[in-house]
């Protein structure tokens, strides 16, 4: 029995190490994921058993209403600050397709990702330093993200830079849902 328990403890500790390492290298992980993974590793070294990091990150999802910095329900959530086009495309679900953006059939300076139901989920507009629009977003480039909601106008809700839904009644709706591009060009 003692040998079986020792094997379980070693296996649990190895899993905690793996989980913490996965949080460190995940480009979509936020500092909460890394901190909770590290805390879980410490708890696993002190307390019996393991999997504490996974448990703590699961608690984070519950507290934040199911959102985390990972792919949840087919959408990339979490902070887009500093993310490059390649990082977002690399982490998008494989069944999503990239198509050029357009306005009234005329191509524009960007692309969008459509999910398996052809719903636009992420839009990226490249910087336009010659833009006459008053928004800095047009001069720096921007992201726009959505999640499906059949009850919402257009069938989607728009997300802010943190992955939270912005109500259309918010007076700063347009500003909050056009996330400035801050990655490397």
Could you walk me through the main structural features you see in this protein, from its secondary elements to its overall organization?
The chain is α+β, with helices and mostly antiparallel strands. It has two domains: 2-63, no CATH class; 71-180, no CATH class. Helices cover 37% and strands 22% of the residues. It has six helices and nine strands, in the order αααββαβββαβββαβ. The chain has helices spanning 2-25, 31-46, 52-63, 85-91, 136-140, 173-177; strands spanning 71-72, 75-76, 97-103, 106-114, 120-125, 142-148, 156-159, 165-166, 179-180. Strands 3, 4, 5, 6, 7, 8 and 9 form a seven-stranded antiparallel sheet that branches. Strands 1-2 form a two-stranded antiparallel ribbon. Helix 1 (2-25) packs antiparallel against helix 2 and helix 2 (31-46) packs across helix 3. The longest helix has 24 residues, at 2-25. The radius of gyration is 20 Å and the shape is elongated. The model is unreliable at 65-74 (pLDDT under 50).
